[in-house]
Design a protein that fits this description.
The chain is of the alpha/beta class. Among the domains are: about 180 residues, ANL, N-terminal domain (Rossmann fold); about 70 residues, Roll (Luciferase, domain 3); about 100 residues, ANL, C-terminal domain (GMP Synthetase, Chain A, domain 3, 2-Layer Sandwich), CATH 3.30.300. Helix content is about 25%, strand content about 25%. The protein contains 15 helices and 24 strands. The strands form five sheets. The chain has an eight-stranded mixed β-sheet with strand order 2-1-11-10-12-13-14-15. Strands 7-6-5-3-4-8-9 form a seven-stranded mixed β-sheet, with helices on both faces. The protein binds adenosine monophosphate. Adenosine monophosphate binds next to strand 14, strand 18 and strand 19.
Length: about 550
């Protein structure tokens, strides 16, 4: 027997409708790419998103067509997302930090018909324009006054483009399983893979982000998503903030410590989300100037492991850290580290140990860890294995790879991460499967070593890779960047780490460098680092 409730499709643009009805006056504040702070609200964002939808419709964009965005987090980007989705077209976020060849490859693979771009990225697009033939028009996210001369095909200033329609338009109607968004993974090997989110998956994911014990997004919040919309959907915040009615503060192109600090304070931000590299810049600014945070209550840190020193820094100034884990394939939230009932008595080092873990899976995310024979491993916090996940906002197949089955016999997706899960359900990433150091048949976690090394007061950033060893196959090499004005002594650093990690995990050598390479999503580029140290001879070898 079927239930007898209404068939109300979970369409993502109903989120902006709800925000406009219930929280129409709630502010959306942006540090605009042109410079000044811009203020609008959800009612206006919705009205202008409808104009975007109408303008696309007028240009002949249809259900299922892809519209690329190369854009920072701004109110115009937000309007573009909702407008694109509202006619059943697909917003395709392109990471502008990728190499131009990769951007061209991705746009061609997606067959984007329209590209919406910030002023910042016009030179990149001009350089590849003759290699992306599917693109019929470029919409520059600016107004007439700032519109540069450009040869981009049918280029138009966004404000002119949406002013040319009357706004009398209604969202199109379609099934909730219709594609809504597309984001390619920044894989370090092989071709990028497209993850195609549906309206239904995006709405369910936004709801999960709002749960009290996930990101606890609320109407009472002022939220600064520093994590870009082009990096795994800004961790849901472009959906969950309007869904909850939170004030939204968007940082535009400026993600440095000074600019972020300024927005946190002037816009009375209560919750913010970013990768560790961005928080590092804020921390350095605060440590240098003695600046204090007066409204911030919580930060989500993810994308790569949150260093212990960063966790302690925030917690010690009264800002609660939500260590979060996820991936593009998961929309992206997979787990968040809040304190479960029964553990609230923890304090000091024990609390930090718990918060260092990547947290527990919310409803709609199922997890398992398995060994090489696919057997499930116990949740004892010790045994580690490949982390696999299942849920309604998790990838089933990659875009245009219909023949590739990426789920196991039980329907789980292999994350490529290696993890433990403790009896309380807290998952802890030990490593990327391809980054673990295999020493004498045992595994060493590069993340643990990195976290320990950055706890040293003179270390700004650390990366650990396995290098060849004739006896042990691989041994850890620690690569460090000193803090500004500091010099690092190898012996002193190793002595500092001694006792904090298992003896046989101790790095065999330390290399001091001025910079560690990063990927387009701000992760340490281990592939490049391994390239650099390919011929490295360990003194112990
Ligand atoms: P992306 O799809 O670019 O978001 O990358 C996803 C990958 O980033 C995951 O599979 C993890 O390897 C890594 N990652 C994300 N969050 C964390 C975290 N909190 N700790 C450690 N690794 C993380």
């Amino acid at each position: 027997m079927l239930g007898l409730m209404q068939d109300w499709p979970l369409l993502a643009h109903t989120i902006i409708d709800h925000a406009a009805i219930q929280y129409g006056e709630r502010e959306v504040v942006t540090r605009s790419v042109e410079g000044p702070i811009h203020r609008t609200n959800y009612a206006e964002v919705r009205e202008r998103a409808l104009r975007v939808a109408q303008a696309l419709d007028k240009d002949g964009v249809k259900l299922g067509d892809r519209v690329a965005t190369l854009a920072w987090n701004t109110w115009r980007h937000l309007e573009a997302w909702y407008g694109i989705m509202g006619i059943g077209a697909v917003y395709h976020t392109v990471n502008p930090r990728l190499f131009p060849e990769q951007i061209a490859w991705i746009i061609n693979h997606a067959e984007d018909r329209v590209v919406m771009t910030d002023l910042t990225f016009i030179p990149i697009l001009e350089a590849i324009a003759d290699r992306i033939p599917s693109v019929e028009r470029y919409v520059v996210l600016t107004d007439k006054a700032h519109m540069p001369a450009t040869k981009l095909k049918n280029a138009v200033a966004y404000e002119d483009w949406i002013a040319a329609v009357d706004g009398k338009f209604a969202w199109k109607k379609f099934d909730e399983n219709t594609a809504a968004g597309l984001c390619y993974t920044s894989g370090t090997t092989g071709d990028p893979k497209g993850v195609l989110y549906s309206h239904r998956s995006s709405v369910l994911h936004a709801l999960l982000a709002c749960m009290m014990d996930t990101l606890s997004v609320s109407a009472k919040d002022s939220i600064l998503p520093i994590v870009p919309m082009f990096h795994a959907n800004a961790w849901s915040l472009a959906f969950s903030s309007p869904l909850a009615g939170a004030k939204l503060v968007l940082p535009g192109a400026k993600l440095d410590g000074v600019s972020v600090y300024e927005l946190l304070e002037t816009e009375k931000v209560t919750f913010s989300a970013a990768v560790p590299t961005v928080w590092l810049m804020l921390m350095q600014h605060m440590q240098k100037t003695g600046a204090k945070l007066t409204t911030l209550q919580r930060v989500a840190i993810g994308g790569s492991a949150c260093p212990r020193a960063m966790l302690e820094f925030f917690e010690n100034i009264g800002v609660s850290v939500y260590h979060a884990w996820g991936m593009t394939e998961m929309s992206p939230i997979g787990s968040v580290g809040q304190v479960k009932p029964g553990l609230e008595g923890l304090s000091g080092a024990a609390l930090f140990d718990l918060k260092s873990k990547q947290g527990t899976a919310p409803y709609t995310v199922e997890m398992k860890i398995v060994d090489d024979s696919e057997a499930r491993l116990p949740w004892d916090g010790v045994k580690f294995g490949r982390l696999k996940v299942k849920g309604p906002a998790i990838v089933r197949r990659y875009f245009k790879r219909e023949n590739e089955d990426i789920l196991d016999a039980e329907g789980f997706f292999d994350t490529g991460d290696v993890a433990t899960i403790d009896p309380n359900g807290y998952m802890q990433i030990t490593d990327r499967a391809k980054d673990v150091i295999k020493s004498g048949g045992e595994w060493i976690s590069s993340i643990d070593l990195e976290n320990t090394a950055v706890g040293h007061p003179k270390v700004a950033e650390a990366a650990v890779i396995g290098v060849y060893h004739p006896k042990w196959d691989e041994r850890p090499l620690l690569v460090v960047v000193p803090k500004e004005g500091e010099t690092i002594d190898e012996k002193e650093l190793l002595a500092y780490m001694d006792g904090k990690i298992a003896k046989w995990w101790m790095p065999d050598a330390v290399q001091v460098v001025t910079e560690i390479p990063h990927t387009a999503t701000g992760k340490i580029n281990k592939l490049k680092l391994r390239e650099t140290f390919k011929e490295y001879k360990l003194p112990s070898a």
